[in-house]
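Section: protein folds

Sequence with per-residue tokens
===
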Amino acid sequence: MNKREVIEKLERLPLNRDEYWVCAGSAMVLYGIRAETHDVDLGCTESAADKLAALGYKFTHTSDGKRYFLLEGDIEIFEDWLFDTVTNVDGFPVITIDGLIEMKRWLGREKDFKDIALINDYLKRNTTK
């Protein structure tokens, strides 16, 4: 999904913007680092997870006991999944670039290291001299 499609998904969320943050590939799309992503990855507050559960959304628990929700088949929401801090991108709460790099290192998959290379290329292109 492209940036417009990510934004449309975010606008349909049953959460307020101060209750979640965009992470992973969808954050890369909002920053303009990548053109597309396969899903929308979000972190959310404990109270947002409570709200989703109260609204009837099914969840499972991650290995650390936090809740994981899958909405619409391609929106993944992880309770308290945050690296670094959040900034505003196009009116949406998004993990910082530093947090995104930290998250990708922590995930440690081959695709995450490729994403880190894309992020570093983006930073080089967009750093003022």
Remarks:
- The chain has five helices and seven strands.
- The mean pLDDT is 93.
